[in-house]
Please model this.
Amino acid sequence: MDLKTLHIYSRPKLVEQCVAACKEGKVVILYGGVKIGKSTLAELVRRRLSNLLIYEDIPDVNLDNLIRFCCQKNSRSCASIITTQGPLNTTVSLVDTSRIVQIEVPLLNDEEIAELIDTYSPSRDYTRFIKAHTCGHPVLVKTLCSYLSSCNWIVDETVFAKMLNLKFMNRVQPYLHYNRIG
Model:
């Protein structure tokens, strides 16, 4: 399925970084906040690599053991990506850190937000407005874009005041959805 149809920003630099590390036989650890796009990024990498194992949402307490397991199995012919909320603490870990690459999945920047907004074909540039209300969190950007798109990108003063007072979630709740690719 087309990423534009799913309203997913493809994060090409991060995808390339992951692909390169996987091709070198390294275990890739994608970490970042909740619903920031770690699993989506891993799936985008899978589209580029045929033999990729993805371990999603691994708790910190299991991370060390899983990385050791992946390092034993990992080679250029079979790569691994692990998604987790925090990075591996390399000062206390017994893992050979030369065999891993840790990549933080950040919030979307202004350019990425604008590109994601464009998938909704708005009537004008809403980047600053959406960035101010979402801080670049991909799910919030998509939710706000979906809502605004359903309103033909018109926000009246009453709705805007509710958004600023954080009473917006009741109106947005029906638009909250998480598209996963696969």
Remarks:
- The mean pLDDT is 85.
